Amino acid sequence: MTHGPQRSRVPDGAPALVTGASSGIGEAIARRLAGRASPLVVTGRDPGRLDAVAGATGAHGVVADLTTTAGRAAVVAACGAHGVGLVVHAAGVGAAGPFSGVDPDTVDAVLAADLVAPVQLTRALWPDVVRARGHVVFVASIAALGVAGEATYSAAKAGLRTFADALRLEEPDVGVTTVLPGVVDTPFLARRGYDRSVPRPVSADRVAAATLRAVERGRAEVFVPRWLQVASVVQGAAPAVFRWASPS
Ligand SMILES: NC(=O)c1ccc[n+]([C@@H]2O[C@H](COP(=O)([O-])OP(=O)(O)OC[C@H]3O[C@@H](n4cnc5c(N)ncnc54)[C@H](OP(=O)(O)O)[C@@H]3O)[C@@H](O)[C@H]2O)c1
Q1: How far is the CA of 174 from the centre of ligand 1 (A)?
Q2: Is the beta carbon of 25 within 6 A of some atom in ligand 1?
Q3: pLDDT at position 9, please?
Q4: Which residue puts its alpha carbon closest to atom 6 of ligand 1?
Q5: Which terminus of the chain has fewer Cβ atoms in its 10 Å neighbourhood, N or C?
Q6: Residue 181 and residue 73: Cα distance in Å, rounded?
Q7: Which residues contact 232 (CB under 8 A, 6 or more apart)?
Q8: pLDDT digit string (tens) for 56-95?
Q9: pLDDT (tens digit, 9 = 90+) per residue, 183-194?
């Protein structure tokens, strides 16, 4: 799918929400938004780490498990009074290992956190975002192209990418950006037993900078690092070459 640039619609000072802000990419995005969004609402599960980020960014922190209806409702309520112009969905979990060995609870947990939660949260905030002619960012992954050893995670991220494509077509007045990072140096890798050094890890702040640049420029998709976009082009043009070159 090709995407032209969208018009950027989120001025500095608009209310913003960042999920997954207690760690990694979400934290880096929240830190870059400090002083640029008003108010800034940040959310995560770990109260201590979230407090530290909220304190450093002047944000309002909401501790919530986004896989629960109550958790999402608490986040929506925190945004409620001001509306929301920019929503960044960075919360997510991974799962590495052969699909033959994956247990059913892991499948449920990955799909709940990486697909159902951002879709449901977007649904709840959508009227506000449309009213604000705002912008929604989905932090997907290069795994959206399909990566061996990450079948469930790949399915969730591909679903998220396609959800974003559909929203972009449906509501041209809202900016929708999908971020597809390769390997990022965050606690995510150790938490889920990943052993990935290829492609070379990039910093969470590099992903944050690329994300906010993509919002400002109204980009539909951004790969980080940018050269990873080649993988997407090859997958479309020469699927056999893509399969041959993919790590197994
Ligand atoms: N790191 C990578 O190599 C990489 C590559 C491509 C894409 N990504 C994607 O980038 C996003 C951010 O990952 P990261 O690397 O920054 O990972 P991270 O450092 O582990 O941070 C993940 C964040 O998501 C939050 N989260 C997880 N499950 C949640 C739930 N059920 N409810 C609410 N919050 C939840 C975590 O909250 P707590 O810590 O408070 O529990 C944390 O703030 C994820 O969507 C991930 O799939 C990461």
Answers
A1: 25
A2: yes
A3: 62
A4: 141
A5: C
A6: 28
A7: 145, 180, 223
A8: 999 999 999 999 999 999 999 999 878 899 999 999 999 9
A9: 999 999 877 766
Measured from the Cβ of residue 218, the count of other Cβ atoms closer than 10 Å reads 18
Residue 8 pLDDT exceeds 90:
no
Question: φ, ψ for residue 133 (rounded to 5)?
Answer: 50, 50
Q: What is the pLDDT of residue 83?
A: 84
206: tokens are: 């590099």
pLDDT tens figures, 124-177: 999 999 999 999 999 999 999 999 999 999 999 999 999 999 999 999 999 999
Taking the centre of ligand 1 as the mean of its atom positions, its distance from the CA of residue 217, in whole angstroms, is: 25
Query: Given a cut of 90, is residue 1 above it in pLDDT?
Result: no
Instruction: Read off the tokens for 105.
Output: 């609870």
What is the whole-number distance in angstroms between the Cα of residue 237 and the centre of ligand 1? Answer: 31
Q: Which CATH superfamily is domain 16-245 in?
A: NAD(P)-binding Rossmann-like Domain (3.40.50.720)
- Residue ranges per structural domain of the chain: 16-245
Q: Are 158 and 146 in contact (CB under 8 A)?
A: yes
Q: What are phi and psi of 124, to 5 degrees?
A: -70, -35
